[in-house]
Amino acid sequence: MAFKVFLIDDDVVYLKSLKEFLEVNNFQAEISSNPRKAVATFQNKEFDCVLLDLKMPGLDGIQLLEKFLEIRTDVPIIMVSGEGTIPLAIKAIRMGAYDFIEKSDDPNRILITLSNAIEKRKLFLEKSVLKAQIDETYSIVGQSEAIQKILDKIEMVARSNAKVLITGESGTGKELVARAIHNNSLRAGKPFVKINCAAIPSMLLESELFGHKKGAFTGAHQDYKGKFLVADGGTLFLDEIGDMSPELQAKLLRVLENNEVEVIGNPLPIKVDVRLIAATNQNLPQLIRDGKFREDLFHRLNVIQVHIPPLRERPEDIPPLADHFIKMFAQTYNKPVRGISEQALQILKQNEWTGNIRELRNVIEKVIVLTDKEIIDAQEINEALGSAPTAQRLSFSNGKSLKKALEEYEKFYIEQTLKQHSWKILDSAKALDIDRTALFRKMRKFGIQKDDYVRS
């Protein structure tokens, strides 16, 4: 595809000569010798680059540059200077022009400058598309008063460097809030680094956070850059901060107090500039009372707190969320789904959603994958939620002992918890407030197996 260049100069002979030269070198060129008409042309047509003469009657190059930059800033503008106009060309670059060339320059320099400018524009457009995709993927969807208050708080705190603690049940969207704060801050465009404190063993988490030098310990075969250094200049998101060991909490506190990281095996601390956002689904004040979380660290992290209510407390957010996921997964799986029936929507509203938005997302994705309809119906939602409503599974029977009824409910509840946590044993055990060994024992007792459950 030939790139399109807009040439503006009052010297018609030079214009035609430059146009012929560029077309020989596989560019498309459009010319204008009238500065005022050039403004309308630039506004109504697509160009990859502009070559603009500095000295013209009527509107000169500086005035025209100013008008072009008001219309759009993604098209690079190269100023063409004649004898004695170099100071003006420098002024144009300070105003926003990409570069300048002289009319007496070697033609190859013109080609190189054009190619570099167009390549810069390609990168700018690709970055814009990627940012739009990221914003869509990580958008916060909802119309409830609670969500509006969260959005207002994000807008207020984003521009500061204040530490933020995000609280809420698993699956409520704590990472989305963290990303929204980062994307609306002065650090947008800098690294956003996430680490899940519950997913990494304590003995490895220190190295993941702070890094290590080669030979610092057995297995340290090369230098490792920790997440604090990777996030330097940007934002570090510590998810599930309540699972961090007390020993590591003390080291994290020192980093927050001094803005210095002590890399394992390096005696010299390294200065870092990182905004910290932490999140938890646990009750940190209770952990403090239990001696499992440092009170001084809590106060350091809890400068601004954002609490996300569970989905069951804001059912008015379910329709826009369902619509958002339907559109997203219909596009992902190339399905003709356009919406959801009112009856199906009522079923979604009445569900408990103990897995919150993550569970709703999984249900919609499952329906989209399996459906061939344009409108999702109630039967499809019921099947995605587990084949039958809860009341049918746990039906009353006079011939059933209390012990048997309790066991049935316990099995059902464990199954649902495992499902909502994608069969991750550690996460499920925490949600049930039991240890992993106890969960495995109960799964064996009730014959709960992932493969059997999926087939059912």
TrEMBL record:
Keyword Transcription regulation attributed: yes
GO biological process per UniProt: phosphorelay signal transduction system; regulation of DNA-templated transcription
4-aspartylphosphate: modified positions: D53
GO molecular function annotations of the record: ATP binding; sequence-specific DNA binding
Response regulatory domain residues: 4-118
Pfam families: AAA_lid_14 (PF25601), HTH_8 (PF02954), Response_reg (PF00072), Sigma54_activat (PF00158)
Record-linked Gene3D superfamilies: 1.10.8.60, 3.40.50.2300, Homeodomain-like, P-loop containing nucleotide triphosphate hydrolases
Taxonomic superkingdom: Bacteria
Residue stretches making up the Sigma-54 factor interaction domain: 140-369
InterPro entries on file: AAA+_ATPase (IPR003593), AAA_lid_NorR (IPR058031), CheY-like_superfamily (IPR011006), Homeodomain-like_sf (IPR009057), HTH_Fis (IPR002197), P-loop_NTPase (IPR027417), Sig_transdc_resp-reg_receiver (IPR001789), Sigma_54_int (IPR002078)
Keywords: ATP-binding, DNA-binding, Nucleotide-binding, Phosphoprotein, Transcription, Transcription regulation
Name of the protein this chain belongs to: DNA-binding transcriptional response regulator, NtrC family, contains REC, AAA-type ATPase, and a Fis-type DNA-binding domains
Lineage: Bacteria, Pseudomonadati, Calditrichota, Calditrichia, Calditrichales
